[in-house]
Amino acid sequence: MKIATWNVNSLRARADRVEAFLDRQDVDVLAIQETKCKDDNFPWELFERAGYEVAHHGVSQWNGVAIASRVGLEDVQRGFPGQPHFGKGGKDPVEEARALGATVGTEGRDGVAPVRLWSLYVPNGRGLQDEHMPYKLEWLRVLREHAAQRLAADPQDRLALVGDWNIAPQDEDVWDIQYFLDNEFTHVSAPERAAFQAFLDAGLQDPVRPRHPGPDTYTYWDYTQLRFPKNKGMRIDFQLLTPTLAEAVTDAWIDREERKGKGASDHAPVIVELG
Q1: Which of 70, 205, 233, 263 has the greatest number of CB atoms lying within 10 Å of its CB?
Q2: Per-residue pLDDT tens for 101-130?
């Protein structure tokens, strides 16, 4: 079973590219972030035409997450248990469309067991002193507790937390760490990195980094200042898997080619193949 995660940065604007990607990479499951659409204008037909079931969680022109699967899609859940809400200035807090869970692989190939998958669009943080930062950290803390509780209840749990984490966990995950620190940018601060590390400490594993270590293995390049041609990127998209699921990985990589060409998203897909 081949699982991909991809922040498409507006699904309707990139429908053709998504359809071509599904065909080119022959993925069984695609977790999508930043669909930027509501359910009533989501391009359902794109996935139906390609042979996928799809679930979507979108309530406005911002955020939005989806899961498309051609190997079964069951027990769909909008938002993880206890997911924090956000309201500017603390007013009228709502649960943003940033997390969508489903069980995939129920119609798996070659005896591959089902996977509980979460498509995640972690809050950005916006600024080290911005009110979005404590919201981001609390959002991650509650998600980590959910994952840890599942693993404690069943050490063989097949859970995948995939998506745009908006964190660069290591210095080599940004093109110039000193530039980020000097400008007090988010994504590389100690609290954010600690929040990410907490998932690894809980037992979740990143199957991509061991296969593609070192610098220049980015998943995101800003559109401005020729960041992509200069390879000034960030590694902020991940698939974190429980140990049993990580053991089943036969290959994992970043599809950098998808960042090239006309109409590309500013993120590249991250792909994991299970045996």
Answers
A1: 233
A2: 999 998 866 667 999 999 999 999 999 999
